[in-house]
Design a protein that fits this description.
single chain, about 425 residues, alpha/beta, Udp-n-acetylmuramoylalanyl-d-glutamate--2,6- Diaminopimelate Ligase, Chain: A, domain 1, UDP-N-acetylmuramoyl-L-alanine:D-glutamate ligase, 3 domains, 6-stranded mixed beta sheet, 16 helices, about 20% strand, globular
């Protein structure tokens, strides 16, 4: 029996895994990961003292202890263990990626599937080379379907994660301009995201849930088995169209040209229509009835700073402050422009990881922000500084400067759109507004 098989046998007896020694508890397995600023090996013995059944380590200087499982590389072992576990259980698995909307789509898809299935799905934003294996190691034998989100900021990453996830089916929400510093170009983004399609093309029964209205995805999926969703009249298996223009997304959909089903969501932004249709398409494939999908989508309320509407004592807020790139900024601003309110105000944080395209993309966003009918536009971060004065916006160096401005001149009776990259920390503002 190989070392990995021995470790898997131990894991099957103690199937709770942690990489944080502060969460060590009796019966868990501790994986001592290394990072740029930390070394989990230093806390392995403390994890054992806290009751962990074993600690997987890669520091040869640690003292002899039968509970220490010594490997060459803890991260690679974690990934290999997760891949082995996923393949051993054989749970039908959907992998989701995309430039924008992948977390919202994952949440909506899990909500719809949960109407008739026991579903394991990625918690929060654990979609990288560490979060994906941790998600898979939460799989249990009675789970009927798994929904795994995967992110990427450089070429090859989706292909690498696909080998761990081993998806039976895949869904790319869209492709847009994000992480250009890592991908080099928009074409690089397309090539990386569609690595998921290429993985599925090599599988005997790989299936793609395809947004048929997206020409880049449609071209990349040519020759693959597809289950399509898109706008009314697109000929997709699941078709949908907007039915209202209020703050919250309202739409209707039909399956195979059948009867229409109306949905009133608690999601802000018409751009979420495609995400909702994707969830319906997946649900339909796995046997969830249309009315059950309606109930799931109407009950879902975002709580993760994505398309989240909040009413405070003084203002209304649309908080979309977890992530930002040129594609998602345009979608959010287009939706905000269509909303009716006496006093609309914008707080936009700079977009990160755009490389040489940064100045041009920030100029475009600043210009568009000036055209959405907002009474005030606040631009936050150095990347926006050159474009504030020429577009009539107020510029702030950072979120602390915005906080000071709010304290000095508290806004009242405004509808705010708050959007920016997570690193700008605009998510700290709602409690002050």
């Amino acid at each position: 029996m190989s070392q990995l098989e021995q470790l898997y046998s131990l894991y099957r007896q103690h199937p709770e895994v942690t990489t944080d020694s502060r969460q060590a508890a009796p019966g868990k397995l501790y994986f001592a990961l290394r990072g740029e600023r930390f070394d989990g090996n230093r806390f392995a013995l403390a994890a054992l003292e806290a009751g962990c059944e074993a600690a997987v380590v890669d520091d040869a200087s640690l003292p002899c202890d039968p509970r220490l499982v010594r490997v060459e590389n803890v991260l690679e072992t974690l990934q290999q263990l997760a891949a082995l576990h996923r393949r051993t259980l054989g749970t039908p698995t959907l992998q989701i990626t995309g430039t924008n909307g992948k977390t919202t789509t994952k949440e909506l898809t899990a909500a719809v599937l949960s109407k008739g299935k026991r579903v394991l799905f990625t918690q929060g934003n654990l979609n990288n080379h560490i979060g994906v294996p941790l998600t898979l190691l939460r799989l249990r034998a009675d789970d009927e379907v798994a929904v795994v989100e995967t992110g990427a900021n450089h070429p090859g990453e989706i292909a690498f994660l696909s080998e761990i996830v081993a998806p039976d089916c895949g869904l790319i929400t869209n492709v847009g301009t994000a992480h250009l510093a890592g991908f080099g170009s928009f074409e690089g983004v397309v090539q990386t995201k569609t690595e998921l399609y290429r993985y599925l093309a090599a599988q005997p029964k790989g299936l793609v849930f395809l947004h048929i209205d997206n020409p880049h995805l449609r071209a990349a999926a040519e020759g693959l088995d597809t289950f399509t969703y898109g706008a009314a009249g697109s000929g997709a298996k699941v078709e949908g169209e907007l039915t209202g223009h209020g703050a919250f997304l309202a739409f209707r959909f039909r399956v195979d040209g059948g009867e229409w089903h109306a949905v009133q969501t608690q999601l802000v932004g018409a751009y979420n229509l495609a995400n909702a249709l994707a969830a319906i398409a997946v649900g339909t494939y796995f046997g969830i009835a249309p009315q059950a999908a309606v109930e799931a989508l109407e009950a879902y309320r975002p709580t993760n700073n994505r398309s989240q509407w909040t009413k405070t004592e003084h203002n209304e807020l649309i908080v979309d402050a977890y992530n930002a790139n040129p594609t998602s900024m345009h979608a959010a601003l287009s939706g905000f422009a269509a909303m009716a309110h006496a006093r609309k105000c914008l707080i936009l944080g700079e977009m990160r990881e755009l490389g040489e395209a940064s100045a041009a993309e920030h100029a475009k966003v600043a210009a568009e922000a000036a055209s959405v009918g907002a009474e005030e536009v606040w631009l936050v971060g150095d990347a926006f500084r050159p474009f504030a004065a020429e577009t009539g916006a107020q510029w702030f160096a950072d979120v602390e400067a915005v906080k000071a401005h709010i304290a000095a001149q508290p806004p009242r009776d405004c509808l705010f759109l708050i959007k920016g990259s997570n690193g700008t920390r605009l998510f700290e503002l709602p409690q002050l507004l």
